[in-house]
Amino acid sequence: MEKEIFISENGFINDLNALSNKIEDKFNISVWFVEIFGRRWSFIAGNIEDSILPTENYRINDRYGIVSNKWEKITLKEKDILFDSVRIIMKKYGKG
Fold this sequence. Notes:
By secondary structure, this protein is α+β, with helices and mostly antiparallel strands. It has one domain. It has helices at residues 2-27, 76-92; strands at residues 32-37, 40-46, 56-59, 64-68. A 4-stranded antiparallel β-sheet has the order 2-1-4-3. The protein is globular.
């Protein structure tokens, strides 16, 4: 059972990293995924960019969110597609 949980977690993280890489390739922005613990947003996957620009955080659900400091480079329609992709990954691993 523990091995199954680890493999599932590993697949979840790998899928989020792959999506983050695709976003970076297509839009030239870094996004990273976080697990939310109250007011604390803790990194779990993606490409963190060190920058002096403020980040913009989006809550995907009560437990997970996505962060970037260059959201303005993505249109609203493309953001909707991106968030749908994240929700599909979360559903695949029972996270959403």
